[in-house]
Design goal:
Helices cover 26% and strands 29% of the residues. It contains ten helices and 19 strands. A six-stranded mixed β-sheet has the order 7-8-9-3-10-11, with helices on both faces. A five-stranded antiparallel β-sheet has the order 2-1-4-5-6, with helices on one face. Keywords: ATP-binding, Nucleotide-binding, Transport. This is ABC transporter ATP-binding protein. One of its GO terms (molecular function) is ATP binding.
Length: 373
């Protein structure tokens, strides 16, 4: 299967509006599960529609393998039906008057696949997706999750080189979404299909993707594996968008004479030296440890005196709300908290768990840190 390459792709709807997608360079490799992640209006669905051919870019090139399918400089445009792509929309778009088996082999009949081969491929994909027993039913007789499986089966039956999914799980309830995530993961592993998946749900992206492209206001913010996106966010937008509860941000740029910002600045300076441009420090809630005794804090860790203001059980874990000199900090633990509400405590964080950002929100990497002479 081919790679998909976007080179300087832009989309502007005119009328003096800003670019919906701006100078996007992105490569989706063969067999990859790529998630386009971001808030509403960030350009992820527009990007997917340009790959499919439903939207025409206003700049740049799109390649599928060695073939250019869209190019403004070269005046090339290949229509959607000739790109060998499968597209599954947020709405299932099933034919209500056709049975499930006729919905599944609809694309095969359009391609005039011989009847014997059509029946074999239809049976195989329906068996793999667990919908064979519904073959004689109509879409209105199925649940939302079952209809979603039918929509996926219809696309997989024609064996597209690339499967494009535009928020296909957003209409399902929590349990069905969990089941369909597992189903999509299995489909990707079993069929080895290149999948491009649009979502605003960070957990869908984190659990499904082999690569995540985080977008904001039409621009690519970071491309990486789920672990890279979570553990080493490229900037504050990525750090704050991915994570629940959200990352704790300590602003260092504010003019403050004391408190958490001052303590954090003193610790970072003592640990790494004077950092030019340092504007804020981010700490994931899972990295914040809480103890009632200061002697339990490891040597070299950042620590601060705090007061426990809330403990929120979530089933398998607890969210601990802390007040640190008037600043609210959250900690997440899988163990029952040792402290009680209204009790004094200490929080501590290992230096490797500190995310440092400059005044513009860009990540300061250790190798890029400049020590004052």
């Amino acid at each position: 299967m081919p790679n998909i390459t976007l080179e300087g792709v832009q989309k502007n709807y005119g009328g003096g509006s800003a670019n919906a997608v701006a100078n996007l360079d992105l490569e989706i490799r063969d067999g990859e599960f790529m998630c386009l992640l971001g808030p509403s209006g960030c350009g992820k669905t527009t990007t997917l529609r340009m790959i499919s051919g439903l939207e025409h870019p206003t700049g740049g090139r799109i390649r599928i393998g060695d073939r250019v399918v869209d190019s403004i400089p070269d005046s090339i445009y290949v229509p959607p039906e000739k790109r060998d792509l499968g597209l599954v929309f947020q709405s299932y778009a099933l034919w209500p008057h056709l049975t499930i088996e006729n919905n599944v082999d609809f694309g095969l009949r359009l391609r005039k696949v011989p009847r014997a081969e059509r029946e074999q491929r239809r049976a195989e994909v329906m068996d793999k997706l667990g919908i064979a027993k519904y073959r004689k039913r109509y879409p209105s007789e199925l649940s939302g999750g079952q209809q979603q499986r039918v929509a996926l089966a219809r696309m997989l039956a024609v064996n597209p080189e690339v499967l494009l999914l535009d928020e296909p799980l957003s209409n399902l309830d929590a349990r069905l979404r969990l089941e369909m995530r597992a189903e999509l993961k299995r489909i990707h592993e079993e069929f080895n299909t290149t999948i491009v998946f649009v979502t605003h749900d960070q957990w869908e992206a984190m659990t499904l993707a082999t690569q995540i492209a985080v977008m904001s206001e039409g621009e690519l913010q970071q491309l990486g594996t789920p672990d890279e996106i979570y553990e080493t966010p490229a900037n504050r937008f990525v750090a704050e968008f991915v994570g629940n509860p959200p990352i704790n941000i300590i602003e260092l740029a504010r003019e403050e004479s004391g408190g958490l910002a001052l303590w954090a600045m003193q610790y970072v300076t003592s640990r790494f030296g004077e950092l030019h441009g340092l504007g804020s420090v981010g700490v994931r809630p899972e990295a914040v440890q809480v103890t009632g005794a200061p002697e339990n804090v490891p040597d070299g860790a950042f620590k601060a005196r705090a007061r426990v203001t809330g403990i929120l059980p979530t089933g398998g874990s607890w969210i601990v709300e802390l007040d640190v000199a008037g600043r609210k900090v959250f900690s997440v633990t899988s163990l029952a908290p040792v402290c009680r509400v209204d009790q004094d405590a200490y929080l501590w964080v290992q230096p490797s768990d500190l995310n440092l950002f400059d005044h513009d929100g860009a990540r300061l990497q250790p190798e890029r840190r400049l020590l004052a002479v």
